Amino acid sequence: xLMNTTRPEIATQETTILVVDDTSTNLQILFDLLSEQxxxxxxxxxxxxxxxxxxxxxxxxxxxxxxxxxxxxxETCRRLNENPMTSNIPVIFMTALSDxxxxxxxxxxxxxxxxxxxxxxxxxxxxIRIHLQLRNIKAxxxxxxxxxxxxxxxxxxxxxxxxxxxxxEKMSALGQLVAGVAHEINNPxxxxxxxxxxxxxxxxxLLDLVKLYQQHYPDPPEEIQDYTEDLELDFLEEDLEKMLAxxxxxxxxxxxxxxxxxxxxxxxxxxxxxxxxxxxxxxTLMILQYRLKARPEHPAIEVLRKYGEIPLVECYPSKLNQxxxxxxxxxIDALEESHGNISGKPQIRISTExxxxxWVAIRIADNGHGIPEEIxxxxxxxxxxxxxxGKGTGLGLSISYQIITEQHGGKIDxxxxxxxxxxxxxxxxxxxxxxxxxxxxxxxRVK
Length: 447
Ligand SMILES: Nc1ncnc2c1ncn2[C@@H]1O[C@H](COP(=O)(O)OP(=O)(O)O)[C@@H](O)[C@H]1O
Ligand SMILES: [Mg+2]
Hints:
With about 450 residues, the protein is an alpha/beta fold. About 55% of the residues lie in helices and about 15% in strands. Helix 2 (about 45-55) runs parallel beside helix 3 (about 75-80), helix 8 runs parallel beside helix 9 and helix 9 (about 315-335) runs antiparallel to helix 11.
């Protein structure tokens, strides 16, 4: 059936050409000519009929007469261009006029070419072939550019996923380190703490014994008298008690720190479980303690707590701690950067409250330099950072967003007034919609 073997992709049964002309003779000539070449030919006797036909199928090319009763070729072409379904079909005008104004007008409103009547067979076929080829190339280009967009998107997604993996890998490494350190310190500190009470008993006992000796032998030999003076026994007695008390305090403190470290890492808990959020916030603050204290180049950061009565929340505790860590570390960064530019003391305010509908809210605010409006709107985007290379990754908040919204079915918002401060508000359902949360996780995985 193929007439033109050198260009089989063009003149096939698949290629339909719509011929629109009000003159039957013209229609007949074109029909015969094109059919003979292996094209499928559809015909319409006027503009309206052509537009009507185009609703049910899309030809690869249109030959369009200019002069027709009803809507003429120009108007038909204009309407074709308006419709996204038909705007890509190449239109070749057929004009009986050798008037070049007509040709220019046709080309201007979107025709790709024109042929003059009476029709030169070879010319018509050549022009049709060229425009079909061009159309194929354009379609190919469109496909390539769409594919490129898809691939770029896929690459972006991959990069995102990779960096998120690295970040969560780092967090889990940090968690493991913290848990390891806590575990190692735990035993020795328990020895110290446990034995301090006995040390106190024994030394007090020994001192009492010395006192007894002194009572019963008020006049010891010279060597003992000299030694007692050198030892400053009275002072020793007084000081020893103070020392023991402060050692006890120290060991209690270390035990608290160890507890916080274990709380923070919570490696053992891969499952969701009911958790006291205040504990998580406190242990995170403990880890960040060294950054809150006064240093030569920076005054202390005051932490004001306003903890409400909130129930235990079903959550992944170490992930929520990661969110607290990211937000608090950002607040400290902002306060350090704002040093000298804020009125009053640098402060972080943390409050919690139970909302209606079984949700809890956690607010973390600072009085740092704030965030410009155009950045607030993109604050949870990955890789958005205003910090110097090596310091910021721009991932903290995007990961926090994912943890809160996807893994806990919650919400996180950022409010900021430049020059005055920033507030992050986290809201989590404490009786989470189990099913829906779990479902959305599966959906994410499938994607
Ligand atoms: N409390 C805050 N005050 C001012 N700017 C903040 C605060 N929290 C976040 N930002 C801004 O948001 C950006 C993104 O934060 P984040 O995702 O944690 O990435 P990073 O801290 O690595 O830059 C920060 O670079 C900073 O500009
Ligand atoms: Mg950060």
